[in-house]
Amino acid sequence: MRPGDLFVAVRGGVAYLEHARANGATATLVPDDDFAALAAIGRAVRERIAVPVVAITGSVGKTSTKDILTALLRPRANVVAAEDGFNNEIGLPLTLCRVEADTDVVVTEMGMRGAGQIRALAEIARPHVGVITSITPVHLEALGTIENVAKAKAELLHFVEVAVLPENAPVLEPFVPAGLAVRRFGAHDVEMRDGHAVVNGVEFSFGARHQAENAAAALATLEALGYPAPDEPVEVEFSRWRSQERELPGGGLLINDAWNANPVAMRAALEYLQERADGRRTVAILGDMAELGPDARRYHEEIGRAAGTVAIVIGVGELARGYDPDAWAPTAAEAVAVAREIVRPGDAVLVKGSRSVGLEVVAEALGE
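Above: the chain sequence. Below: its structure as tokens.
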């Protein structure tokens, strides 16, 4: 807390009321409904925002696209961007509340668990530009079909002036409102140069080829906001537990991508592991992929086959048995000991699973 702050007690925060007041809180709020209170605050702040607001959603890549867009904007604008994966009923209002008088652009992120949730977030943010990064088989447990996923994501498009959409997402097209201004993106030209990705003529600091579509989405959004593509290399800092790399003993490499997982992202991460291995033994520590509905077992088996070129696969979680792993642990905490026993100096290691698995503890343990 700092003097002048409003302290809102959500999810047990009431225990810290006195501490907040002692540290200068101007006011404290204990809401009857956490989400409704934060939504009301977010709407009140949004009424005072005159600068462009961007909203990014999609099945995969929304946080990375947000990070890349922020990196593109920062040299030329004062940007307020969602922190990490702040994309729900708490995170969105918190992002809006960080806007100051000198802010030029606001970049928000919107996640969902079911139908109607993107609409509720869009009603708060009322964005000018809406970005949908992709439509893939996620949230099927709640929504049933990929068409329903597309429909739920497209709720955003009823609130925006300009939509930034992938060139190849036919399942999304029936839900694009007639007459809406649409800009399309695609990674038409991708080159790897000295460990950097050059996407559509712009050089980025990352070397992950699977980030190319996210970079293309960010470049299209930059253009929609009226900013030219940069001539200089772009330094991108990804949010925690997303494509983060660090050295391991003996010349090893750890790729910490533990924030979340789905079939598309998992395949891309496995391909990247092979690219980065450069002769090192590969170890993939793969957790469950959540919210895949009745076909969950099949999706896990498909990823198991895709991981066939990996030297050692460690599965974490009940569904991860479908990978047919070389070793298995029921929880992330128990996987720490398994990983420490298997991983050798000089290995290239990928850690990836759905948020519910919490595999960051394994990555952190290996990096100690």
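The chain is about 30% helix and 20% strand.
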